[in-house]
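Input/output pair, single chain:
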Amino acid sequence: MNIPFHKYDGAGNDFILIDNRNLNVTLATEQIARLCHRRMGIGADGLILLNPASDGYDFAMRYYNSDGLPADMCGNGGRCIAAFAHQLGITPTHHPDGGQSSLRFLADDGPHDACIVMWDSHERIGLVTLGMKEVPAAGVTRCLDGWLLDTGVPHYVQRVTDLEHYDVVGEGRRLRHLPDLGPAGANVNFIEDLPDGRLRVRTYERGVEDETWACGTGVTACAIVTGNRRLCTRGGDFRVDFSPTGTAFTRVRLTGPVSLNFSGTFVIP
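Output:
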């Protein structure tokens, strides 16, 4: 079976995108892991199926980490699938408060909306804003030497010094499975303030089991625990906006770059 795919990245966090609106693509865990393998496959941090819409939504998102296992949400993946839907000609049906139209889609962690702020079809680059899940204030807890919270998937955030030379992979791997971070573990984010006021973030992602160049749910978690809305990663800069109400962090929106790298076809026997 020949399956067309498109390779996108959100600030270096890269994904294999497949149009599965006709539901003819079914991939086993081992097949997904092989496709994401950087030496024996296409290479990616994850694979995403764009599935048909449910009532009230423009499409559905099914996300898999590079180990082939599903995850409830991926922030950069959500921004990339919105750009992919835009490229497929899927027309937004949602017009919040009479403002800019936005795509509405359903992920495993619930509903999301996304706005294509800019898309250059010649350069195949753009800027996409994604609505993230509301985070209860009670769900942001002190843990170990940092904070633990769920922004679609669980994240641990810890301040460090000299983040440029920090052993993100070694420490991330050590912390990721600690019982304090829950039975399934958590993604691990290390942060440091920059002189220009931005917050620098480096993330070790579970499921990828390595450092990624950016993590959308990760920078969202870091913004919420620090209050800093301007963040930078190895792959690019982000803005995270939110409204703290005392009981929750609402209207959480993640904005960052998206690129279409290349397209092709792979064969599944």
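The chain has four helices and 17 strands. Residues 75-88 form the longest helix (14 residues).
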